[in-house]
Design goal:
Helix content is 40%, strand content 16%. The chain has 240 residues and is α/β, with parallel strands linked by helices. The protein has two domains: 176 residues, Zn-dependent exopeptidases (Aminopeptidase, 3-Layer(aba) Sandwich); 46 residues, no CATH class. Strand 6, helix 3 and strand 7 form a beta-alpha-beta unit. The longest helix has 19 residues. It binds zinc ion. Zinc ion binds next to loops.
Length: 240
């Protein structure tokens, strides 16, 4: 099973970038959680650096990713300080980290974000500038989703629904790199007569609907109607 380590930028007393009531630490957490959920939906094992409002050092994230033996690792951030669009940092050695960064940047562009490109940053000794990239065993990237202090970027990511879309896009980028085909999430069917379904049968009705074994009449499930021999035959054929 593929393993992904997701670092969530900042947290606790460290707000990260701030614009009005919007904090990098909150946006990054919301995006990271959505990304993790989507990866897990595809059978990927995920470790998040945090799931609540707390801080964790870069060194601790690196150590966690390494002991988790992640296949890929990313730290999720929101930019500030002039500019707009997403940018991703990877190692100066390119390779799998660069591939991952390129994939994720593409999926962010697919959901309407501008690209500032995949980048590298070098320290004076010629090594990778960012410790998260330099010290993580797995190919690691730093994702800057957008600029919190840029009006259009903020509008693109300021709601929970949008953060979910961004998280999923990042997951899509990971999955592409892992060679796992992306499965679109099926919209949940809500029957007009859902209230008539007895509580003991609700889970079963959801299951057979999701599997397509029993589909009601499009709008209603008709939970208390008798079933005909023809309908039983149709159900059995779907199971076969
Ligand atoms: Zn940050």
């Amino acid at each position: 099973m593929a393993k992904i380590y997701l670092g969530i930028g900042h947290g606790g007393a460290d707000f990260g970038a701030v614009a009005g009531n919007y904090y990098e630490k909150d946006l990054a957490l919301s995006i990271g959680k959505a990304c993790a959920a989507d990866l897990m939906r595809h059978g990927v094992e995920v470790m998040l650096s945090r799931e609540s409002d707390m801080d964790k050092t870069i060194a601790a994230k690196v150590a966690e990713s390494n002991s988790f033996h992640a296949d890929f690792s990313a730290d999720i951030h929101i930019n500030a300080g002039g500019g707009n669009g997403a940018e991703i940092y990877h190692t100066i050695n390119g390779g799998k980290g660069k591939n991952l960064g390129t994939s994720i940047l593409e999926t962010l562009e697919e959901i309407g974000q501008n690209s500032r490109g995949c980048k590298t940053k070098t320290r004076s000794d010629g090594k990778d500038y960012f410790a998260f990239i330099r010290n993580t065993d797995a190919p690691a990237v730093i994702i800057e989703c957008g600029f919190i202090d840029h009006q259009e970027d903020l509008a693109w990511m300021d709601t929970e629904a949008e953060q979910k879309i961004i998280g999923r896009a990042i997951a899509k980028g990971f999955l592409k790199t892992l060679g796992i085909p992306y499965k679109e999430e099926k919209a949940k069917v809500i029957y007009a007569d859902a209230a008539e379904i007895p509580s003991w049968a609700q889970e079963a009705v959801e299951y057979v609907t999701d599997k397509g074994y029993m589909v009601g009449d499009g709008k209603r499930f008709r939970p208390n109607d008798p079933i005909t021999r023809a309908e039983v035959a149709a159900i059995l054929a779907r199971l076969g």
